[in-house]
Amino acid sequence: MITKEKMDMLSELNNENGVSTKKLLELGFKAHDLTKLVKNNQLQRIKRGLYIVNTNDIQENHNEISPKEIIKLLKSKKVEGITLLRQFLRKAKRTNLEEFLVLLIKIHFIEQKDSWEEIDSILQNIKTFTINFTKYIEKLKIALKQQQMEVTSLYLEILKRYGGNIKDVEQISKVFLIHHQVLKDGIVLIEPKTKKEEQLLKEIIMTYSNELMVIPLNKENKRTLLIKEKPLKLVANSPFKGESFYKKGMYEKALKEYRDALPGIKSKKFIYYRLGCIYEKLGQNSLAQKYFQVVDAYTKKIVSKEEKFIHLVQNGMSLETATKEANLNQEERNKMYLLYIKECFILGKERTGEFYLKQIMKEKEKSNEIKEMLLKIQQQKRFFPNQKEMYQPLFLSRN
Q1: Per residue in 324-333, pLDDT tens?
Q2: Stretch among 111-115, 327-331, 386-390 having the lowest mean pLDDT
Q3: In the chain, how many H helices and how many E strands?
Q4: Which domain-ending residue is among 80, 107, 130?
Q5: Are 251 and 297 in contact (CB under 8 A)?
Q6: pLDDT at 31 (0 to 100)
Q7: Global pTM?
Q8: Of 301, 336, 362, which marks where a domain is finished?
Q9: What is the number of structural domains in the chain?
């Protein structure tokens, strides 16, 4: 094998009177090595047993640089690794991939990977290698999801520099930047200037992101789009756990609980409201206003006090707090409670139903209508579960 060390020694030989076969054999070259060097024009045979070394051809053409050698230097974080990589690409006539590989190497060091398999595979197949943009879009999504923003920006740079054949690279960039903001703040509110701009933004997000959803909050002729993550699954975190932290003044912990609970809660109005309160307590007033704006959009759809009470309970608020928020009087409150109690028995939540039933029974002053409703529930509560299959819940989830 003709090593780099041998070629370096060959290039340093005095060529004035030629180099003998004996000298070349002493340097470790074999007869078949000499044949190969002559064929590559790195040695010129003058006569039997005597050669001239073509130094320029050695420096230009001997680039038997192996990917293994490049990666060894890169692992050691030596600048010679990049120098050797450039020579390797120049020899392979793939200098157009230099920036791409440098960006990949940067990502590699940031992620502190032990395996260099990806870069080694590219170098091994450098002459036929083509960039798989779908692969790097997926890698970008993963980095973004994990909030590795430096890595995300490097993958984005790869797409921008080399993704000319990908439709709407700038639009992809826009979506990922929005997604980053969603991960950071929970929601993003955008106010498109025209209907066309609104429609375009919706189409871009639907095309390039499987994890974001767009909800129009158009009101008073003002276009506003709420962008948030799609609910992927029900989560174990309870918003009431977050409420406990909130009441204790532990706002950072409350924020985490409510943010984690948000994707799994179908009706989100109270969660948005409480997140607004938490951000306000943390002094992030501009972000708090975004959440209150969403709450306002929900609330404007509510007509009566009873509807407001139902809506608040659907969104996770306790019956007691919802009564105050909806400003119900005692008669209105009792009617709502009895409807809630009946629903508890229908859906198999007997303990909750019994708890609130006792509260109503303890009240001394009750109207005749409330007494009749109360008596009916007491008499028929054991039969209510039979209605579950056809029943459409008003307050609670079936789960």
Answers
A1: 888 889 999 9
A2: 386-390
A3: 21, 6
A4: 130
A5: no
A6: 85
A7: 0.43
A8: 301
A9: 5
